[in-house]
Amino acid sequence: MSHNESLRKVFDRRAFLSTGALGLGSVAFARSALAKSIELPLPGGPDRRDITTAWPGKGPMILQRTRPPLLETPWSVFDKGVFTPVDQFYTRWHWADIPTHIDPKTFTVTMSGHVNQELKFTVFDLMRKFKHVELAAVNQCSGNSRGYFQPRVAGGEWSNGAMGNARWVGVRLKDVLDAAGVKPGAVQVQFEGAERPVIPTAPNLKKSLAVDHARDGEVMIAWEINGQSLPLINGFPFRLIVPGWYATYWTKSLQHIRVLDHEDTNFWMHPAYTIPDNWPQANMTPGEKDVKFVPINKMVPRSFVTNLTTGAKVPAGRPELVRGIAFGGDTGVKMVELSIDGGKTWMPTQLSKDYGKYSFRQWTTHVKLDKGDQNLMVRCTNSDGLQQPMTPNWNPGGFMRNVVESTTVMAV
Length: 412
Ligand SMILES: Nc1nc2c(c(=O)[nH]1)N[C@H]1C(S)=C(S)[C@@H](COP(=O)(O)O)O[C@H]1N2
Ligand SMILES: [Mo]
What we know:
The termini are far apart. The protein folds into two domains: 1-272, Alpha-Beta Complex (Sulfite Oxidase, Chain A, domain 2), CATH 3.90.420.10; 302-411, Sandwich (Immunoglobulin-like), CATH 2.60.40.650. Helix content is 10%, strand content 32%. It is globular. The longest helix is centred in the N-terminal third of the chain and has 9 residues, at 3-11. It contains six helices and 26 strands. It has helices spanning 3-11, 13-19, 24-28, 123-129, 173-180, 211-214, and strands spanning 36-39, 48-52, 61-65, 70-72, 91-92, 108-113, 119-122, 132-140, 163-172, 188-193, 206-210, 220-225, 228-229, 239-241, 254-260, 274-276, 293-295, 302-305, 313-314, 320-327, 333-339, 347-348, 350-351, 361-367, 372-382, 405-411. By secondary structure, the protein is mainly β. The strands form six sheets. It has a five-stranded antiparallel β-sheet with strand order 1-2-3-4-5, with no helix packed on it. It has a five-stranded mixed β-sheet with strand order 7-6-15-10-11. Strands 8, 9, 12, 13 and 14 form a five-stranded antiparallel β-sheet that branches. The structure holds the ligand Nc1nc2c(c(=O)[nH]1)N[C@H]1C(S)=C(S)[C@@H](COP(=O)(O)O)O[C@H]1N2 and molybdenum atom (MO).
């Protein structure tokens, strides 16, 4: 991507209008203009979810909450390809007062704290001064699939659609930090977006990464998602991309970058968004005492069937196509296997094109099923040898669901 091409996209007047502003009139209608609902059974309910088509710039989405917007990608979208269409990319915000208009001509990103020189970048500066990089990476909410936690935990009861994969274009955070000059003794880098809490005394969402992580050359400040400017609802004009880490760190509408000479202990780092300190399990027993919690961090491998859903009827006794997606978490996918005997034996699947280690990877295979209910189990092993476990984890935040998923079809 050339500088000029990227700049043209952001400065294109029509692009501002579609991304830099949220049609608030339409937002207000989000609840009343429901098109329909879909079946989406979760343990403990509900069995159906409303589908909304009323969000500016979004196609049909599962409505979890209107203010702030929590919109989930309908499952069928993940079968269409490894990159999630922008108009059906999920969205999640913490505070209802999300930015409804950002003028890219006046918006600035500030870099302050433990640096040699405090800096302020306009949108134009940030895009022009640093080398452009592109990376395919999965953005997954820490609470994706929370609706399947048993016993149930509080929070957005997502099914599996609080994730998406995209090609992100932007600049390396490292280059931007180096321009300000990180001082010796720096510990973490903190990120804050342009929204503000509804109650002024409530803490705004602030997330931090270790300095070495922030400077690893992979963490990016991006403005492009799958070839277009970020929609406002997904973080226009810039968002942080933290490949392999949960989306809570992917700060949208990034406005402040602060280099800290101490560990960030703000509410959103601890106790919010913490997991039991036993990665990759993030597991504990409900009610267990004296569990040490640490900030959520790297993702774990996951895999799903996408062309068949539970309850689907498939012909018995002849090879049927089974297809899906997988991702390795904080590294690539080594293999994806399928079991139709409850996990006793596993058969290999074919992996499709590799778009890089942080991307979704499509897999396909054919299976011959006997008549009756058949459980398709899919298991991903990542390049570090980490494999999805057979029993689900549990933690009170409903974070980091980590288990071999099953799809029960009826062979007839
Ligand atoms: N500024 C800002 N950035 C944010 C959030 C937020 O509330 N405010 N939520 C985070 C969380 S928890 C998630 S899951 C992702 C969602 O990204 P998306 O809306 O583009 O899908 O944004 C992250 N970045
Ligand atoms: Mo999230």
